[in-house]
């Protein structure tokens, strides 16, 4: 009896070893112990990897589930082509001198208004990304140049020279995207808005050198970058939880459209905005309801 049990056990073990450890061949995937531990039965979006032990359904059903879907309603496209707000993935200019010239001629206006917050962010990013070469003042004398005794492969641009003061915003943006000479590109390090804020900050350095104004309220450096003016922070209204009949968000800022010296605000405060007819109200598609 014991001999029979041993014989049966040996046969079973032998069969298990041969069936569980078959090696894959030309027309066979072989055998695996607990294959779902090595092969996920979950589907991955936009990646077709049907597995024969998949439990989600048939091969055709898996194909449909893994395929691309229509975007969710209200999804914002990556690019707003034609509005001047193209992002890095859809930047319409190539990394060539011809395209650089085209960008310089066509990218004129900064799509973001000048704000104190934007200048602060741009300054922080400039000091980290740009100042080491172009200098804290934008004079091309960053510490990499100074501390090396001026032995630099190519002198960094001096943004305070007239050539750069009068240069279009496109010249700066294209250089940030692709780099120039020994300078590398920063399109993978700075977001779309961050690039434009850095350009705003460079303009503020130029204004400081020329002793003119470039801030949220006034820009006497050039005519293409618009100051945001007085901004009512929408976020500050969230705490009201719908008080004053505005649903917690003063998107219109409670303004009565009475143009003149300023706008009369329903809260009882008179704000002097100092509009000129060139700016008026510019309704952007950014976070602010009004950009002055």
Q: Going across the biggest sheet, name each strand in turn.
A: 1-2-3
Order of helices and strands: HHHHHHHHHEEE
How many helical stretches? 9
* Beta-strand content bin: under 5%
Oligomer: single chain
Q: Care to count the β-strands?
A: 3
Helix fraction, binned, reads 25-40%
The N- and C-terminal alpha carbons lie at a distance of: 98 Å
Low-confidence stretches are 79-86, 233-292
What is the overall silhouette? elongated
Structural class designation:
mainly alpha
Mean pLDDT over the residues = 74
Radius of gyration: 31 Å
Explain what this protein looks like in three dimensions.
The protein is mainly alpha-helical and 292 residues long. It has helices spanning 2-20, 59-66, 97-106, 116-129, 131-134, 143-146, 162-165, 169-178, 192-210; strands at 255-256, 263-265, 270-271. Strands 1-2-3 form a three-stranded antiparallel sheet, with no helix packed on it. A hairpin with a 6-residue loop joins strand 1 and strand 2 (263-265). Helix 3 packs antiparallel against helix 8 and helix 4 crosses helix 9. Mean pLDDT is 74; it is low at 79-86 and 233-292.
Which key terms come to mind for this protein?
single chain, 292 residues, mainly alpha, 3-stranded antiparallel β-sheet, 3 strands, elongated, disordered C terminus
Short structural summary:
The protein is built from nine helices and three strands. It is mostly helical.
Can you lay out the helices and strands and say which pair or pack?
Elements: H1 2-20, H2 59-66, H3 97-106, H4 116-129, H5 131-134, H6 143-146, H7 162-165, H8 169-178, H9 192-210, E1 255-256, E2 263-265, E3 270-271
Antiparallel strand pairs: 1-2, 2-3
């Amino acid at each position: 009896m014991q001999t029979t049990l041993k014989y049966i056990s040996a046969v079973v073990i032998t069969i298990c070893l041969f069936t569980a450890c078959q090696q894959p061949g030309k027309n066979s995937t072989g055998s695996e112990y607990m294959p779902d531990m090595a092969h996920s039965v979950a589907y991955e979006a936009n990646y077709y990897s049907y597995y024969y032990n998949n439990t989600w359904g048939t091969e055709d059903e898996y194909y449909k589930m893994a395929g691309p879907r229509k975007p969710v309603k209200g999804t914002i496209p990556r690019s707003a082509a034609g509005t001047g707000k193209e992002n890095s993935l859809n930047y319409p200019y190539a990394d060539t001198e011809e395209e650089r010239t085209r960008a310089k001629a066509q990218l004129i206006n900064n799509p973001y208004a000048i704000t104190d917050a934007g200048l602060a962010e741009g300054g922080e990013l400039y000091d980290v990304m740009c100042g080491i070469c172009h200098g804290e003042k934008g004079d091309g004398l960053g510490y990499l140049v100074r501390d090396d005794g001026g032995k630099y492969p190519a002198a960094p641009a001096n943004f305070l020279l007239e050539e750069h003061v009068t240069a279009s915003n496109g010249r700066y943006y294209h250089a940030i995207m692709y780099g120039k000479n020994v300078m590398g590109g920063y399109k993978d390090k700075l977001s779309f808005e961050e690039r434009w804020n850095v350009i705003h900050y460079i303009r503020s350095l130029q204004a400081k050198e020329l002793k003119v104004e470039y801030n949220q309220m006034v820009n006497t450096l050039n005519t293409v970058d618009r100051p945001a003016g007085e901004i009512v922070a929408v976020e500050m209204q969230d705490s009201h939880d719908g008080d004053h009949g505005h649903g917690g968000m003063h998107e219109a800022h409670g303004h009565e459209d009475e143009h003149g010296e300023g706008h009369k605000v329903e809260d009882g405060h008179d704000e002097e905005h100092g509009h000129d007819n060139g700016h008026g109200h510019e309704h952007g598609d950014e976070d602010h309801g009004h950009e002055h």
